[in-house]
Specification:
109 residues; 4 helices; 5 strands; kinase; HipA_N1
């Protein structure tokens, strides 16, 4: 299992994870949901206490990935399989993203 903190403008909003079968989950932190001043990270992931689940990386996070020759270069330099979307997200979305969301890997324990 791999997991990452999802930060919105530097504040931790929730956790994104991928299990050993390749399924994805995203869950907001309870504190984030209860604070009415905190927005949803995406229109496609509204604030809810329920965990979002998917066989595929959620479109919001998928759209944060590099494409084309940039993707090929990042994959080659970091030795990431080009179909490892979670690994690619962990590598590229930890800083310098276009939007307010960044992704920080949670080390395995």
């Amino acid at each position: 299992m791999r997991a990452a903190k999802v930060l919105f403008r530097g504040e931790e909003a929730g956790i994104l994870s991928q299990d050993d079968e390749g399924r994805f989950e995203f869950q907001y932190h309870k504190e984030w949901i209860e604070d009415s001043s905190k927005p949803a990270i995406s229109l496609t992931l509204p604030k809810t206490i329920q965990t979002y689940q998917s066989k595929y990386l959620f479109p919001f996070f998928y759209n944060m990935l590099p494409e084309g020759s940039n993707k090929q270069l990042v994959c080659r330099l970091n030795r990431i399989d080009r179909n490892d979307y979670f690994g690619l997200l962990l590598t590229t979305a930890k800083s310098d993203t276009i939007g307010a969301v960044t992704i920080i890997k949670i080390p395995k324990q």
